[in-house]
Design a protein that fits this description.
By secondary structure, this protein is an alpha+beta fold. The chain has one domain. Helix content is 16%, strand content 31%. The chain is globular and about 35 Å long.
């Protein structure tokens, strides 16, 4: 997997990124899994509009032909996606 447009990283326990430091692939996968786990009991939107003031991190696997997208706002994760699988998970904050 190759990473592109990777913004910042923080200790994996905090889930908040520090400005100016890149995520490792391992940290991006961990963050993806964290958002996946915590979005399960939250209402998912019918349509997701990426936040205007957000950042996007991208990791691409040429072997699997998949792209992992992670959106953040103010350095906090808000959504994850694998577009090739039509997969999206959003931290909406609304109980399902």
């Amino acid at each position: 997997m190759h990473t592109q447009n990777v913004k910042t990283a923080a200790p994996e326990s905090s889930r908040k990124m520090r400005e100016g430091q890149a995520y490792t692939l391992s940290q991006m996968i961990d963050l993806f899994a964290w958002v996946l786990e915590h979005s399960r009991n939250q209402k998912q939107p019918a349509i997701f509009v990426p936040p205007v003031n957000g950042d996007l991190m991208v990791a691409r696997s040429n072997e699997l032909n998949e792209t992992i997208l992670i959106w953040t706002v103010d350095s906090w994760p808000v959504a994850i996606s694998i577009p090739e699988n039509n997969f999206l998970a959003v931290l909406s904050g609304i109980p399902a």
